[in-house]
Amino acid sequence: MFLTLVLEFHTLKVYYFLKRIFVANNKKLIKITFGTPLERFVAFLIDTAILFLFLAIVGSTINTILSQIPAYRNFEYSTFFLGSIVSGLYFMTMLHFHETTIGKKIMGLKVVRSDHKRIGPSRIFAREGLGKTACNLSLGLGYLWIIFDKKGQGLHDKIAGTVVVKHS
Q1: How much is the CA Rg of the chain, to the nearest whole Å?
Q2: Measured at the alpha carbon of residue 118, what is the angle toward residues 32 and 93, in degrees to the nearest 5?
Q3: Which of 41, 95, 107, 141 has the least CB density, counted as fewest CB within 10 Å?
Q4: How far apart are CA 79 and CA 74, in angstroms?
Q5: Helix (H) / strand (E) containing 110
Q6: Residue 158 in contact with residue 132, Cβ under 8 Å?
Q7: Which ranges constitute the DSSP H helices of 27-166?
């Protein structure tokens, strides 16, 4: 009786062990392919063109309206601030809802956390607000980091803990 109980216990342990291995090996393996610097640059150009067209229409409309006011001056500064706000909102909103922008979607790219999970609002702000500000203050050197990094991360990606990957 004792021998039977011990054998059943060991059989149960072996079965449980084998089942865990089987389940672990049965998980879907996901191949991660990082976006290339060229793909990211083309996506950036597409997004920039979209923003430029939008801001040209909105900016000229606002300028037409505000130019009627005699005290209205420094249109260049207001256009710069409008462009910065609209650009930031575009990137943050698109990443929050879609994990991608229109340019990245066309190029088959999306932004995820470094552990390949969905990007959250705090990382989006860190990437688009803090990280891209740091890249711009470094005169674009933070963006060039993408070329030399093995995961293709720029300074803004490093700050936020994000990577740009191809859609799977």
Answers
A1: 25
A2: 120
A3: 141
A4: 9
A5: strand 109-113
A6: no
A7: 37-66, 75-98, 102-106, 121-125, 132-137, 141-148, 155-160
> What amino acid is encoded at 51 in this protein?
L
pLDDT per position as a tens digit, 19-65: 333 334 445 666 789 999 999 999 999 999 999 999 888 877 877 77
Q: Which amino acid type is present at position 137?
A: L
Output the six-digit token pair for 30: 């996901």
Give the chain's length: 168
Q: How many CB atoms lie within 10 A of CB 15?
A: 10
Ordered by start, the domain boundaries in the chain are: 1-30, 37-166
Contact 168, 110 (CB under 8 A): no
Query: Is there a contact between 164 and 34 (Cβ–Cβ < 8 Å)?
Result: yes
Say how many CA atoms lie within 13 Å of 146 toward its Cβ: 21
**Residues 125-149 pLDDT 10s:** 999 999 999 998 999 899 999 999 9
Q: Pick the closest to residue 159 from 137, 128, 138 (CA basis).
A: 128
**H-run or E-run covering 99:** none
Kindly list the distances between the CA atom of residue 12 and the CA atoms of 1, 127, 140, in Å, as whole numbers in the listed order: 16, 50, 61
Pair of tokens at residue 114: 């470094």
